[in-house]
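ingest -> validate -> predict -> emit
validate: passed (alphabet ok, no gaps, 78 aa)
predict: started
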Amino acid sequence: MKTAISIPDPVFKEAEKLKKKLRVSRSQLYSQAVESYVKAHLHSDVTRRWNEVLKDVDSRPDPVLTRLQSKVFRGEKW
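emit:
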């Protein structure tokens, strides 16, 4: 897909240096950069959504389970 974009001159100049260093085309550099950005932000709201789902869930350890674990591990050497 061909597209036209506007970017600040300093960013363009650094991108030109990087494409030469990496020996890739401008299209390849920009495509890889956008792909990385998209992947990094694809699930960026997952934590927020999980927190929303779990906000009313009691996440404290079960007291019975805690007592049982204490009994089991009491004689263990760490």
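Residues 7-48 form a domain with the Arc Repressor Mutant fold (CATH 1.10.1220).
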